[in-house]
Amino acid sequence: MKAKFIIPLLLFVVLVGFLAVGLNRDPREVPSPLINKPAPAFKVPQLADPNKSFSPEDLKGQVWILNVWASWCVACREEHPMLVELGKSQVAPLIGLDYKDKRADAMEMLARQGNPYNLSAMDNDGRVGINYGVYGVPETYVIDKAGIIRFKQIGPITKDVLDKSIYPLITQLNKA
Amino acid sequence: MIPEIGHFALILALCVSIIQGVLPLIGAQQGRREWLVLARPATQISFLLLAISFGVLAWCFYVNDFSVLYVAEHSNSQLPTVYRLGAVWGGHEGSLLLWIFLLTGWAFAVAQLSKTLDEFMVARVLGVLGLVATGLLLFVLGTSNPFERLLPAAQDGRSLNPLLQDPGLVFHPPMLYMGYVGFSVAFAFAIASLLSGRLDAAWARWSRPWTTTAWIFLTLGIALGSWWAYYELGWGGWWFWDPVENASFMPWLIGTALIHSLVVTEKRGGFKNWTVLLAIMAFSMSLLGTFLVRSGVLTSVHAFATDPRRGIFILLLLSLVVGSSLFLYALKAPKSTLGGKFSLLSRETLILMGNVFFVVAAGSVLLGTLYPLLIDALNLGKISVGPPYFNAVFVPIMVPVLFLMAVGPWANWKTTDLKTLLKRLWLAAVLAFVAAIAIPSLMGEFTILTALGFLLAFWVIASGVLQIIRQCKVGMPTRSFIGMQLGHMGIAVFVIGVTMVGAYQEEKDVRMAPGDTVTVGGYQIRLMGVGPAQGPNYQAMRGTFELVRNGKVQELMYPEKRNYDSSTMPMTEAAIDAGLTRDIYVSLGEPLEGNAWAVRVYYKPFVDWIWGGCLLMALGGLFAVMDKRYRLRVKK
User: Fold this and answer.
1) Which of A5, A12, A23 lies nearest to residue B311, judging by beta carbons?
2) Does B592 touch chain A (CB under 8 A)?
C-alpha cells in the first residue's frame, strides 16, 4: 500500500469526524449578542388596556421574564402549558410581548387558552421585536434586577429548559 | 390494507437487496457461477418491489388516505391532483423512497442493457448497487417509514408547503435524484473494476454512457431548481449558494471532471487511478449531499424536518460506503498500470489540468458549505458563509477552466506543439477580444469583470465554431463531437447570461398606486389596479400591470400575493415577461397605506440564457450518449 493512495481515506476520516461532531450541534442556535447587555428600552400599550403602557423601567429592581408570543404562532400554542406552569410558580413576573398581532385575535386566544401572563404588552409593528433581535416566535428572555438580559430561549420552552435553565437561573439572580 | 402492501414490498425488497448485494459479489470473488447469476433476477425483483411500494404511496396520495401519517402531513383534499403526485416526494420519507426507487431503476437498466458485458463484471456492479440499496432500505425502514399509520385517521391533511405547489417543483426532485443516484452506477463500475483488478479501457468505455446520462439528469435537475427559485421565490435571483444547492452542485463539478477523465482512460488508458477516484468521489458527494440535506447539520432555506437518529444513520451509511471504497482504493490502486505516455503539452495534460480545477472548485464549495460546521465543531463560534465567499473563490477557479475548454479540443493526444496550437487559435483569440471590448461598450458600461466574462465566453464560442468548420471539411462529425461542442457552447451561453445579468440588470423597489409608472431598461410598467382573485386552494390579491414600450402596450402582467388556506405564510407569485434578450419581472410586496403597494420590478437582460446554457449542456450530453459505438454495443 503506497502512502499517497491512503490520503483520500484519511481526508474522509477527518471529514466524518467533523460531521459527527456537527450532528450534535444545533446550527439554528445562535448565541444572542444581547446576552449580558442591557435590555433595550421601550414603551408600548398594554394588551388588556391600551390606555395603560408598559416599559421595562417599571420592573427595575426585579428579576422578570419576557415572553414573545402571537395568536398566529402555532409553536406558541405548544409552549402554552409551560408558560402556565411558569406563571403559577410565581418565581418572577411573566410579561408577554404580543408580537405583530391583532388585538382582538390576541385577546380571544388568551380568553380561550388561559392567560399565564402578569400582563402583556403590544408590539403591533414589531419594532420592539427588532430591538430584541426576535427572529422567530416564541422567544423568551430572562432579565435581571439591573435590567440586563441573562438568558434567551429561541423557540418554545420545554420542561427541560424550564427545570435546567430558567428556574435555577432565576433563583440565582434573585439571591444576587 | 393497501399501505401495508407498500410497507411489505419494502421489507421484501430489503431481503432481495441483501441477496443481490452479497451472493453475486462472493460468487464473483470465488468463481461460483450459481451465485453470480443471481445478480440479474435479484435486481429485477427489487426494482419491481420498489415500483410497487412507490406506486402504493402515490395511490395513497391520490385517494387522500389520511390514515397514513406521511400523506396527512404532506397533502390535503383541496390540493390539486398534480401537486398530490408531487407531494409523494415533498417530504423526507417519500423523497427517500424516490431515491431508492430510482436507484433500483438504474440497477434494473444496467441489468437489461449489459447483455454483452462480462458476467463477472455484471455480477459485481449489480452487487455493489445491491449493497447501496440495502443500506438505504435499512435507513427507510428503520427511521423513515413512509407507510406509518395515523390512528385515528386525520380528517384532512396538513397540505404541501405552498412553495412546493409549483410545476417546477414536481419535476425538480426526480431529475436531481436521477442525477445523484445515477452516479451510483459509475461508482459501482469503479468498485467492480477495483475488485476484479481489471482497471482497463473497457471499464471506462462501459461506464461512460452511464456517467454521462446521470450527468445530464443532474444538469437538468440543478437548472430546474435554479429556474424555480428565480420565478417562485420572488427575489429574482437564480443561485444563492445555499448549502442544499451546493450539495447538488458538488457532485456536478466532480461528475463533470469524471466524464472528461473517462475519455482519457478509454482512449489512452491513462489516468486510471484518478478516474476511479473521481467516480468514488462523485457518488460520495451525492451521499454527502443527502446527509447534509437530511440531517439538519447546516441551516438552509430548505428547512427540512430533522431527527438526530436519521443524521447518525446516514453518517454511518456514508462512512461505510465511502470509507470502504476508499480503503479498497488504497489497497488496489497502486497495482494499476500507467497508460500511454504523454508530453507536457498534449490533450491529456489539458484535460488533467481542467480536472484539477474542477476538483479544486468542488473542494472550495465544500469548504464554504461546511465551514460553519467546522468552526462550530472546534468551538470557535457560530458563523455563516455567504455568496461573497463563493463568488470570490469560485469565479477565479472557473476562469482557467473556460480558457482550457477552448484549447483542449485542438490539442492532439500524446503531444502537440505550441506553434500548431497558436496557429489554430489566434483567430478565436482575436474574435474574443473584439467581443470583449465591443459588447460592454455597446451596452453602455465597461468594467474589467464584464469584459472578462465576454472574453471567455466568446473565446469558447469562436474556438468551437472554428473546430466545427474544420471537422465538417473532413467529413460528417460524430455524435460525440457534436455533443462535446454543444456542451462547451452551453457553458459559453451560460457565462453570457451570468455576465449580462450581473452587469446590466436593473432593480427597482417602489411604492406604486394605481396609475403610477416605473421605468426599467427602456420599458414603462404601469400599475392598473390590484384586486382579489380565487385559486383552487388559495385566495390572492392580483395586480394588473401594463408593460409599455415606445408608448405601446406590449403585454399585461399579473403578479399575485397568495394566501393558501393551509398556511399563514403569504406567497409571492411573480409575473415574468420572458424574452430571448431580457426578462421583465414584477412582484408584489406588502400593501401600503391607501391603495398603494410595495412593488419590485426587475429588468434582467439575457437571464434565460443561464438556463438555456444548461439545456444546451444537457443536449450535448444526450448526443454524446447516443454516439454509434455505444448503440451498437447495446443492440447486439
Assistant:
1) A23
2) no
Helix (H) or strand (E) holding A142: strand A139-143
The residue with greater pLDDT, B522 or B103, is B103
| pLDDT digit string, tens, across residues B580-616 | 999 999 998 888 888 889 999 999 999 999 999 999 9
How far is the C-alpha of B159 from the C-alpha of B468, rounded, in Å? 52
B312 CA to centre of own chain: 25
Domain span holding position B531: 507-606
CATH number of the domain within which A121 lies: 3.40.30.10
Q: Is B318 in Cβ contact with A22 (below 8 Å)?
A: no
Residue at B476 is within a domain: no
- Using the Cβ of B569 and the Cβ atoms of chain A, whether some distance falls under 8 Å is answered with no
- Chain B residue whose CA is closest to A9: B326
Residue A121 falls inside a structural domain: yes
| Closest Cβ–Cβ partner in B319, B330, B374 for A18 | B374
C-alpha cell at B382: 457560530
For A99, the domain range is 32-175
C-alpha to C-alpha distances, B479 to B139, B410, B625, nearest whole angstrom:
41, 17, 8
pTM: 0.84
ipTM computed for the complex = 0.84
- Measured between beta carbons, the chain A residues lying within 8 angstroms of B302 are none
- Residue B4 sits in a domain whose CATH number is 1.20.120
Cβ pairs bridging A and B (under 8 Å): 71
Q: How far is A6 from chain B (nearest CA, A)?
A: 5
